[in-house]
Structures are given as C-alpha cells and as structure tokens.
Design goal:
31% helix, alpha+beta, Ribosomal Protein S5, domain 2, 6-stranded mixed β-sheet
Length: 172
Amino acid sequence: MSTDATPEPTESPAPALPTTEVAAATASTPVVSAAPAAKKRVDLAGNVIATGRRKTAVARVRLRAGSGKIVVNNRPLEVYFPTVKDRELVAGALGHVGRQQSVDVDITVSGGGPTGQAGACRLGVARALKDFDTELAEPLRQGGLLTRDGRMKERKKYGLRGARRGTQFSKR
C-alpha cells in the first residue's frame, strides 16, 4: 500500500469502444462553445423570420428571395405607410446593402404609432437580412441598422401631472 491517502482502483477500466460507437456517442452529446450560436429562424416555406421592436411597436418580418415586393399587414408598403419618411425607414436596410430588387418582405406589425412601427419594421428587416445572408451582417452593423433604439416613453411619477411636469404653482 502507498503512503498517500488515495485508494487504489479496484475495478478494471471500461473496455475500449470501437471508433463508430465513439463517434456516435460524441455526436449525441451537445457541444458547448464559448460564442453563442447564431439564432437563425426559418419557417417551413423557407422564409427567414426576424422580429423588430421600437417603442411599443413589434414587427414580425418574413424575408425570402424574390422580386422586391414589400407587404405590410397584407397591404403594399405605399398604402400602409403613406409618408415618404416612414417608407424610406422601412426600406432603408434593403437599400443599404443593395437588396431592394432581390428579396420579398412580408411584415406583420402591431402596437405603437406610424413612426414606431416603421422603426420596428426597419430593425426586423435588418435582422432578417443578416440571417438571410451572413455576409451582410458587417455592413448592416456599420450602418447602425442592427442596433435596437432603446428610447421609450418615461413613466408618470406620483405627485406630478406627467413624467416630469408638476402642478401649477399659485402665489395667492
């Protein structure tokens, strides 16, 4: 017996597995990597799905290869967003990477007002483009299109008439 306190093994080592069984065993165990895996959502029809948010508006975007048609809530982009500013905001990500005529976009948006909805659509389209073609991720990030706008309405505080507006002061 040795002088240290570690006991000697009494069982024989496990028999060596054939290489095919080792490969099958390692394939079934999940591999944990340091970097998170890209979350690419694709539906049964092959559409890339992404979500964009701005203020209280939420946009679900489906992107697929096509001819450049953009539909928002089952209406054409020009009908749903009548102002040029909002239309340019929605299609801005496509124009930034030069994909206006090569993809079709179907957007379902709810909540908020027109500007918030347009901002949510822009973020959703940019995220869908990033998943559609991974080479577009860097130009979209450089253009600031993958950054969520975190500005929200400030909550009303007690004792005030709004978020910061107090009651009117009276001298008499």
